[in-house]
Specification:
The complex is a heterodimer of chains A (about 450) and B (about 160). With about 450 residues, chain A is of the alpha+beta class. Chain A folds into two domains: about 45-155, Rieske Iron-sulfur Protein (3-layer Sandwich); about 170-430, Naphthalene 1,2-dioxygenase Alpha Subunit, Chain A, domain 1 (Alpha-Beta Complex). Helices cover about 30% and strands about 20% of the residues of chain A. Chain A is built from 15 helices and 21 strands. The two termini of chain A are about 15 Å apart. Chain B has a single domain (about 5-145), classed as Nuclear Transport Factor 2, Chain: A (Roll), CATH 3.10.450.50. Helices cover about 20% and strands about 45% of the residues of chain B. The radius of gyration of chain B is 16 Å and the shape is globular. The chains are: A alpha+beta (about 450), B alpha+beta (about 160). Chains A and B meet through strand 13, helix 8, helix 9, strand 19 and helix 13 of A and strand 2 and helix 3 of B.
């Protein structure tokens, strides 16, 4: 039964000050509306410009469930299109990335398009003369996504023609992307390899929330990080140097007090990050030669400023997380209400020592892979929640930790690091971007959630 | 004297130890400097500066094994079980004089937990060395046929 479509008041009713109704995670209709409203109204990560280094290079992605592609044109510009032939809808690009040469060619009827998306040629063109073809959308070529912004090589797109401008949408949160790029002595990042892909049988928002959930690591990851510490203490013998692996796992077991003081910063529109004062990434061993490179590139003061910023997880609402200190981006791609594809990308710091790339790749496979013991801990919790939320006894998820009455929405603030305020911040943004283009149908009951 | 049969028997024995969850006996098959590697790319050469699903030393394998039986290992409630169906190993090298022993084994691997069952296909490559009278694993490499697909949890060892 449709309860939420054309019913923005019912959607808004799913989000209370410090609770959310379970339908945001388990109701297929709510998921459909997210695809129809939330994802098109938001700025979504498409890919990284380093994946499009030469003319003709392309990548494919999904915005919500809609296939899109980005390409590098002969003049160096980057374009983003819907990935479908304007003729019969066939996907033009079927691979995650590649080089198409001078033009795209549909494999079905050989319609071809320049790498800026414009129509190049159609076989038997005469057959379209006098048919009114030039008045159709197909004659424009690949349907272009107009709202595209490339920020420090990160390509974002917003499908809705109208909405919040990129600068207003992200605001100061872009400082995490800045910090990640600045960590290269050349100020540049590069994607050099495929992401680690991991299928989650849970709603995508559970993953996003978990990024700033600092009260779970010492509990849920006792089995992985806790065991790693225990085994190392037993096996280390006379070893004085903690292996990179133990350095990466160990801080997950930090006590509540550590996370409390390290802080959380929230920004408008649902963005926020953990690890303000310091983070689980603060105490990794120095990599030989790196600081010297950074000082040479930026000067003493600026180099220390960049490296002193060790934010933990930055959520870019709605569905990516960036980890500047270990150069990882996780993309939480919604597939269905209870199915999420997680793609975890590593960026290489251009010009920095290999050791940093080695560490980032190691972190990614330790934490973000289907073979990762930390991942196993987390996915188990999400799956149990996806099941548990089907119960009718209590239909609300509690996000009240360190809630203060009268909390303002869409503000910038630094707060106690164990607060659930960033989750509240995300859900405020969720309701906003779900309903901003949704018209109320007067026949719909308002209290659908009950 | 290590023969081709010794290598084959060793590989069957290794799979049996995994299928019967004799974890400690399985770890004992590895050389202290061994690596367990699951590449993420086709014919991958570099485990360090290219992404992998797993590239672990004995310390990390011990962590995995110990975790499997931990009281607070919630992703093992209920426990996983596994089954290895191996094709006869192809001996790539059996050179006792040089101490080089290598085999490649095509397999179908099944991992099950609760009501779910997942099946994987691929090739296991064993690089073995002789230690005393025994063979030990220096490198076990697992190449999945669909290494590039998004999997759910893989909690045991292929």
């Amino acid at each position: 039964m449709a309860k939420y479509g054309k019913n923005p008041r019912a959607i808004a009713g799913l989000v209370r000050d410090a609770e959310v109704h379970r339908d945001v995670y388990v109701d297929p209709e709510v998921f459909e509306l997210e695809m129809e409203h939330l994802f098109p109204n938001s700025w979504i990560y498409v890919g990284h410009a380093s994946q499009l280094s030469k003319p003709g290079d392309f990548i494919t992605a999904n915005i919500g469930r809609q296939p899109v592609m980005a390409s590098r044109h002969s003049d160096g510009s980057i374009h983003v299109f819907y990935n479908r032939c304007p003729h019969k809808g066939v996907k033009i690009a079927s691979e995650p990335c590649g080089n198409t040469g001078k033009f795209f060619r549909c494999p079905y009827h050989a319609w071809s398009f320049k790498t800026d998306g414009s129509l190049l040629a159609i076989p038997l063109k005469k057959g379209y003369e006098g048919t009114g073809f030039t008045d159709t959308q197909a004659s424009d070529g690949l349907s272009k996504i107009k709202n595209v912004v490339i920020y420090r090589d990160f390509i974002f797109a917003r499908l809705s023609e109208n909405g919040v401008a990129f600068e207003d949408y992200f605001g100061e949160s872009l400082s995490t992307i800045d910090n990640m790029a600045d960590r290269s002595p050349e100020g540049k990042l590069a994607v050099e390899a495929v992401p680690i892909r991991y299928m989650h049988t849970c709603n995508w928002k559970m993953l996003v929330e978990n990024q700033t959930d600092t009260c779970h690591p010492m509990v849920a990851h006792e089995s992985s990080a806790g065991t790693a510490i225990k085994v190392w203490q037993r096996e280390q013998g006379n070893s004085t140097e903690t292996p990179m692996a133990v350095q990466l796992y160990g801080p997950f077991m930090s006590p509540y007090e550590f996370y409390e003081q390290s802080g959380i910063r929230i920004w408008p529109n649902g963005h926020g990050h953990t690890g303000v004062a310091n983070s689980i990434h603060s105490n990794y061993s120095d990599v030989e030669g790196y600081l010297g490179q950074m000082v040479a590139a930026y000067g003493e003061k600026r180099a220390h400023e960049i490296l002193g910023e060790v934010r933990h997880n930055t959520v870019y609402f709605p569905n990516i997380m960036v980890k500047g200190a270990v150069q990882i981006l996780r993309n939480f791609i919604p597939i269905a209400v209870d199915r999420t594809l997680v793609e975890s990308w590593v960026y290489r710091l251009v010009g920095a020592p290999d050791k940093l790339y080695e560490r980032a790749l190691m972190y990614n496979r330790f934490i973000n892979a289907p073979t990762s013991i930390v991942g196993h801990d987390d996915l188990e919790m999400y799956e149990r929640a996806q099941e548990g939320l089907k119960t009718n006894g209590n239909q609300w998820v509690n996000l009240r930790r360190l809630y203060e009455s009268g909390e303002e929405a869409d503000v910038t603030a630094v707060i106690n690091g164990t607060s659930e305020r960033q989750m509240r911040n995300q859900f405020h943004a969720w309701a906003k971007f779900m309903t901003m283009d949704m018209k109320q149908d007067v026949d719909q009951p308002v209290e659908a959630a009950e | 004297m290590i023969s081709e049969n010794t290598i084959t028997d060793f590989i069957y024995r290794e799979a049996e130890l995994l299928d019967t969850m004799q974890w400690q006996a399985w770890l004992d098959l590895f050389h202290p400097e061994a690596r367990y590697w699951m590449p993420l790319e086709w014919q991958q050469q570099d485990p360090v500066l290219q992404p992998s699903l797993m590239y672990e030393d004995l310390l990390l394998m011990k962590v995995r094994v110990e975790r499997l039986t931990g009281e607070r290992t919630f992703s093992q409630k209920p426990k996983s079980r596994c089954h290895h169906l191996l094709q006869a190993p192809r001996i790539v090298a059996c050179d006792p004089a040089a101490g080089v022993f290598k085999a490649r084994t095509s397999y179908i691997y099944t991992e099950t937990r609760g009501d779910t069952l997942e099946r994987f296909s691929g090739w296991a490559s064993h690089d073995l060395v002789q230690v005393g009278d025994d063979l030990k694993i220096m490198l076990k490499r697992i190449d999945l046929v669909n290494f590039d697909a998004p999997f759910g949890n893989i909690q045991l060892f292929m």
